[in-house]
Amino acid sequence: MDNENVKQEWKKAGSDLGHAFAGLGKMLIRTAKVGMEKADQWANSDDSPKEEKKPEGQE
Fold it and tell me: Is the whole model's pTM more than 0.70, yes or no?
């Protein structure tokens, strides 16, 4: 293998690695977005336990 072939292999490996990191970054952002949407739904939901109303005169 000569110097030029090694150089080209490193360039391709660097490019492939760069694309892999870009894909990973996008996946992390999409995952965070889904998590934020779920957290927002939870925060805005009214799923707290309802207080039972007791008949008047009973405590």
Answer: no
